[in-house]
Structures are given as structure tokens and as C-alpha cells.
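Work Package 3 (structural annotation) set out to generate three-dimensional models for the target panel prioritized at the project kickoff. During this period the team completed the workflow that converts sequence records into C-alpha cells, so that structures can be stored uniformly alongside our sequence database. As a representative example, we reproduce one entry of 321 residues exactly as it appears in the project archive.
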Amino acid sequence: MNPETFAEWHRRQGRRVVRTSSSWWYEASPRVYQSFPLHAIVRPPDDELLEFLRREGALALRYSTPLDAPVGRVSYHVVCDDPDYGLHKLDGRARNAVRTGLKRCRVERVSLERVADEGWALEVDTCRRQGRDVPLSNQEWRRRYLSAAELPGFEAWGALVDGRLGAALLCVQIGDWCEVLAQQCLAEFLGARINNALTFVFTESTVRRSDVRSIFYTLQSLDAPASVDDFKFHMGYVARPVRQRVVFHPRAEHLVGPWSHRLVTAALRLRPKSHLLAKAEGMLRFRLQGERRAEDQEWPRCLQAPQREPARELGSRSSSV
């Protein structure tokens, strides 16, 4: 698949898509744009970004840029590019979890139509377990998966317990990268470790494909706690350092500051399940912290010493992605 097809998937979900000289962008939330493909690390010039913000009437945008860029929150992408990935690459706890999961479920490719029909319950259960409002309606959920079923490059994987869909994963291949777009699991099966089994089988099968260079699992979330990615690291994925830059429209700049961040943070305490407030707090925090030099920022836990110096080198090599 190429980015144009991925853009069409976003359009079919009712999202606005814009292309600039350096990147593609989709409207992740009202008037807030995210660059894609998500694994891409870009250096758009400021005049391009300002023209985009003004022309589209966007409030803000967000993208990943190299670690040696002058601005942006020190952050990371979670990836696996080891073709020798297998149980022997996991620690003892993760190996045991995978073995337990594989005894309790069968992992295989499933149809996107099946996830459209059966996966909604998994999404609701996952969001509630994480203390979040469900961001999609049932109709929007179905459109997301049925649109993917009509386009090349999308896959769904499932962990089946006695024929029942207990966990699911949605991914897309763009060029020689495979990006994980979503993953859900029913709470009743977490103890059975079927999520570990699903992630392991998907990763082992995908990273060995001749046309796949790397798997992109996620980028650091704006609002989730650091522990949310621990599962991925236990499953053999690594953190690739980048900077995430948030740029606001010039007319909104006067609203960006420590005082506005404190205000949004206070509102979030009153409405802790609000998806909008959580993302707004993260956008403001990433923007404010991103104004500092990289060495003056508090690095994410997964990038802290003794990993910091090798991380710098890896981030520099990623600049051409």
C-alpha cells in the first residue's frame, strides 16, 4: 500500500486529509492534524506548517521529527525490526505468558468484517478498563473496519478462545513498514494471556516477511501513562528516540502557556474520562516541554541512562525515514 490508499481510508471515515510538500496529514480530532504514515520522521519547514495551519484553519498539528531537530518533545516510537524475533528474544516472564496464552487460544488472521461485527465489545471493554470514554460510536467502528476491508494492505489478527474473538489487532502495511493501528482484548481473558499470544504470533509472522522492514507498534501517547508501553517492551519491541513537535496556529499562540496547561489539567481532574481534555493537556504539555533543548528535558523512562547515548545515535539515523 502507498500513503494515498491510507489517505483514502481516512476519507472514508469522514476525516479530512491534506497533503503538503513534506507529509500527509489527517484530522485526528476537530481542527487538529496528525502526520502520517505514523512511522515517518520528517523535517517540514516552518513556512510550510504556517501555510498549512492558515489555509486549513487548523488549530494545531503534530508530527515526529529527528532527535537532533531544534524543537520538539523528546519522545519515541515503539518498533521491532529483528528478523530473528522469537521466544528466545523474550525474557522469562514474557515467554511464560506467551506459552500460557497459546494454550488458551488460537491466533490467526481473521476477516476485517468479523472484527467489524464482533470487535466492538472488545473496544468498549478495553476503553472502560483503561478509564477512558469510548472514542468511536458503534457505527463509526463498523465504518472503520469495513472501509479497511475494501482497500488493500489492511489485516486483522485475532485470538480465538473456543471460537470466540477474545482479542483483536488491526494493522496496515505501507511500503516496507507494517503499522499497528489498534488492539483490544476482553478483560475476562487478560489472565489467560491471550494478548501476549496475539502480539507474539503477529510479530513473529510479520517481521519475517521479505517485504517488511519493520513493525511500528505505536508512538508515545500524548496522555497515557508511561506504563502503557511496558507490555510492548516486554514483548520484544524497542524504543526508537525521536522528537514529537506540536505546532499551534499563530492566532492560538497567546493561549499556549503554563497557565493554560494548568487550567486544562484542572478541568481534566474534574472529567478524567474526557478524551478531548486528555489530548488537549498532552498537546500543551508536549508543546511547552518541546521548547527546551533535548538535554534539558526529562526523557521518557524507556530512553533514560544508560540508554541515552545510543538512543541519540539511533534517532539521528532515523532522520531519513
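The chain has two domains: 3-79+240-320, 92-171+182-209.
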